[in-house]
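DM from R.C. (forwarded with permission)

"hey, sorry to bug you on a friday — could you get me a structure for this? deadline for the figure draft is monday and I only need the backbone to look sensible"
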Amino acid sequence: MITCTFSALPPLASLSLVWFLLFSGIALLLTCYDKAAAQKKGQFRIPEKTLLWVAALGGAFVMYLTMRLIRHKTLHKKFMIGLPLLFVLHLGLLSLRLFF
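My reply, with the result:
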């Protein structure tokens, strides 16, 4: 039987991992929903500001990959440039938190 535990990680690292997993899941759902809503007229769309906030809070990497895979907002520079920059920032903050 395979079990998944975070006991080998320091408490702050496991909390950070849960945080990023949570916002990655939210980013995936919001991006896919917005793509589906964009294809149908009259449906509620997710505001770009909301998508960017979710990305900034930890979902940038998954949101970028999802947008590339489903071809959503790939012509918007604020997403295609901003999301990778946010991801690099997240990596930097995470490494600071883990090593210092």
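R.C.: lifesaver. The chain has four helices and no strands.
me: no worries. The CA atoms of residues 64 and 81 lie 9 Å apart.
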